[in-house]
Design a protein that fits this description.
This protein is of the alpha+beta class. About 30% of the residues lie in helices and about 25% in strands. The protein has a two-stranded antiparallel ribbon with strand order 1-2. The longest helix is centred in the C-terminal third of the chain and has 19 residues. The protein is elongated, with a radius of gyration of 16 Å. It starts with a strand and ends in a 10-residue tail after the last helix.
Length: about 60
């Protein structure tokens, strides 16, 4: 069974989870490189699944 990275987002009681295959060279990557790769995958997952905005309104 291949190793995968699981990433998830939870907000307001709703959640989304995805499975991402690891790159072929995962075992040759340093721990720092693995962390950077996983952070990048999580950033992409967040940007695809979380909508945020700001607005100026009168109270």
């Amino acid at each position: 069974m291949a190793k995968v990275l699981k990433v998830g987002v939870e907000m307001g009681g709703l959640s989304d989870e995805d499975t991402v295959p690891l790159p072929d060279n995962w075992d040759q990557m340093s721990e720092d490189e693995q962390g950077k790769w996983a952070d990048e995958v999580l950033d992409v997952h967040l940007s695809n699944n979380v909508n945020a905005w700001w607005n100026v309104e009168d109270e």
